[in-house]
Design a protein that fits this description.
This protein is α+β, with helices and mostly antiparallel strands and about 140 residues long. The protein is about 35% helix and about 30% strand. The chain contains 3 helices and 5 strands. Strands 1-2-3-5-4 form a 5-stranded antiparallel β-sheet, covered by helices on one side. A hairpin with a 4-residue loop joins strand 2 and strand 3. The longest helix is centred in the N-terminal third of the chain and has 22 residues. It is globular and about 40 Å long. The chain starts with a strand and ends with a strand.
């Protein structure tokens, strides 16, 4: 599975996006699906960059591949930051007016809505979040 390892800083978001674009475009991924994957990836990467190591810093590995028939895009984020299972968090109530909503959770909700499957595990001191999108 192709991968890149970067410092988990928001400045590296464009590197993650370029990495994913290269894989998705080479496979002829439809633009609508590519954009959904990019939204999900951005939300997860920004969360890792903002919270996984705070106030310190660390790295994140992003792995991605397309396999199967029908094609499935698999995207994996791995970091050694604070253990955090985004799937254990309640989705924010988006039916409430903005002023009444709790802060947080929208990025994870966007990632969930733009992928078909999300799995989380904490193994050997690492957060491993796997997302799958049928393309």
């Amino acid at each position: 599975m192709p991968k890149i390892t970067l410092d988990a800083t928001v400045q590296h978001l464009s590197d993650v996006q370029a990495f994913l674009d290269e894989i998705l475009e080479a496979a002829g991924c439809p633009m609508a699906k590519l954009l959904q994957i990019q939204v999900a990836a951005e939300e997860i990467f920004i969360n890792v960059a903002s919270y996984a190591y705070a106030p310190d810093s660390g790295s994140v590995t992003v792995s991605a591949e397309i396999s199967g028939d029908p094609a499935v895009f698999t995207l994996v984020f791995t970091d050694s930051g604070i253990p955090f299972n985004p799937l254990a968090q309640s989705d924010p109530d988006i039916s409430l007016p903005v002023a009444e909503r709790s802060i947080g959770g929208l990025g994870i909700l966007l990632a969930k809505k733009n992928t078909n499957e999300m799995l989380y595990e904490y193994t050997d001191g690492q957060n491993i979040l796997t997302m799958k999108k049928y393309i």
